[in-house]
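Chapter review: from sequence to fold.
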Amino acid sequence: MGGHVATVSRSDGIPGSTPPQAAASAQQPATSSHDRLAVTRQDLDALLGDLAGVCGQLEELATTWRREHTSGTSRRQLPLAFPHRLQSAARRLAGTLKALAEAGPEPDLAASAVAQLAALRGEVAAAVSDRPGQRGDSAPGHDPGAALLTGIEYTLSRVMTRQQGLISRLDDGAEALAPAPASAPADARGEPPVARDEPPR
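The token string follows.
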């Protein structure tokens, strides 16, 4: 048959080979991906630990408020179920963060986590500002739940910082794993291949 068949070879006609540096760099993405997964897992564990701590603090707050309510010295206008409602919100946020870490940079999950945390922090801030006048024989200015609420606020601020770091790390990982633009393969000396036409057979 007539015609020309294009073949690819080095400019000196010697078949190209993969340089050792290229082979080493080919293994680097897998190692980097493993490292990113390990760090993401650490970020998630720290977040889940903080949220578990918040749930524990909220349980203490619920106990404190029940005692005040029973003794008639309640300082809060919020319902007794308030701390348990926030516990449910904290656990829901923990579930969202788990799903986000498993799914990777998922914009909808990230936005949901940000919105959930903002709502949780807003509820705690409202509880902190809800400090009506003292009643009963309690010493003026003494509020057993105030320290708990302040601690919860502090922990949630740390959760916000860590959550931002987790989302940012997932985004950076996705960019690092994105395929690079295609380019012509190079030979061992870094020279691009040269197309040659073989004579008709």
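Two observations follow directly from the output. Residues 62 and 161 are 26 Å apart (CA to CA). The radius of gyration is 30 Å.
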